[in-house]
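Tokens for chain A. Residues wanted.
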């Protein structure tokens, strides 16, 4: 039986220890980073070997391919894509142009991913930034207007799904106000629950049919002053599942990030207890992965149903001409994308 975890791996090919570990621990999926990537041929072999290790040709293989600063596939082997804020700028002038551009950009990203066997992209970012927030989100966000974020996020979700790739909206229920980089420290947000509901949460509520979502390592003091969303039963139950109405697969952000405290096994247990369906562990360190695996429960019950529903949305890409799409996208963007 598969377990409620997504693992990274250490390098560009699987070593014997990793292969045996993944075979025994049976993670639900895997995630790729720059350290894993050389070129298309190498990456396709790595993706295939990850799936072979769990004997599942459909196993989720994730990547963070947003465009801009956060992109694992980069030139010269892959075309550079614009950051989300660029589409927000277009939206200010023309809603329709921006939505079409965001859709085409997502279709082109999906074409790059399906070529190498990747079937999940951790996109779109639905966070709404504010003045004074840490730059970790910055131009990864579409805009400060929730209506623009919803419209552009919807276009990206449609583009990825029609391109044969599952989208993951992040960072639920909102990372835009964080004054610290959660890779390094735990952000705390003192904003009232009413204001959070009207701004930060509304983008996720508007797109709550997205098949997957990634939690924010952020404390919302008005809701749970003790725990970040990832490990907060109250935030997950009352806000993510309740107010936002998200019933898709909920995955944690990386439990090895600096925002969380304690042994990695305790972090894993806390995220699953809080209500995350799947725990994400990214750094590929074997000793940490073993500790995570010891706490990663079997994927069953509601978590299994959500996972199966998400994977059930995967289908072959609709007919699509990447060359024509590149020309049209460049025209829409007003400059080379």
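Reply:
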């Amino acid at each position: 039986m598969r377990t409620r975890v997504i693992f990274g791996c250490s390098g560009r090919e699987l070593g014997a220890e990793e292969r045996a570990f993944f075979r025994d621990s049976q993670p639900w999926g895997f995630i790729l980073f720059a350290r894993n990537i050389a070129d298309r041929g190498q990456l396709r072999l790595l993706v295939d070997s990850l799936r072979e290790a769990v004997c599942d040709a459909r196993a989720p293989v994730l990547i963070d391919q947003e465009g801009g600063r956060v992109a694992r596939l980069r030139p010269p082997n892959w075309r550079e894509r614009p950051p989300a804020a660029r589409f927000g700028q277009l939206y200010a002038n023309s809603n329709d142009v921006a939505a079409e551009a965001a859709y085409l950009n997502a279709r082109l990203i999906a074409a790059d991913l399906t070529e190498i066997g990747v079937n999940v992209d951790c996109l779109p970012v639905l966070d709404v930034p504010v003045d004074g927030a840490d730059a970790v989100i910055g131009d990864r966000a579409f805009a400060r207007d929730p209506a623009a974020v919803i419209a552009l996020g919807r276009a990206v979700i449609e583009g990825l799904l029609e391109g044969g790739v599952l989208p993951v909206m992040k960072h639920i229920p909102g990372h835009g106000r964080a004054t610290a980089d959660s890779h390094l420290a735990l952000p705390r947000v003192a904003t009232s629950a009413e204001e959070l509901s009207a701004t930060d949460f509304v983008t996720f509520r508007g797109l709550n049919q997205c098949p997957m979502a990634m939690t924010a390592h952020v404390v919302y003091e008005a809701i749970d002053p003790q725990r970040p969303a990832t490990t907060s039963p109250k935030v997950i139950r009352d806000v993510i599942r309740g107010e936002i109405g998200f019933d898709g697969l909920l995955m944690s952000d990386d439990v090895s990030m600096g925002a969380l405290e304690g042994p990695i096994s305790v972090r894993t247990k806390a995220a699953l207890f809080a209500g995350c369906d799947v725990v994400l562990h990214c750094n590929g360190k074997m000793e940490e992965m073993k500790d995570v695996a010891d706490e990663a429960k079997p994927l069953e019950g509601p978590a299994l149903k959500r996972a199966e529903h998400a994977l059930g949305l995967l289908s072959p890409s609709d007919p699509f001409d990447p060359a024509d799409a590149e020309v049209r996208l460049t025209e829409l963007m007003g400059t080379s994308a």
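The longest strand covers residues 166-172. The CA atoms of residues 219 and 228 lie 4 Å apart.
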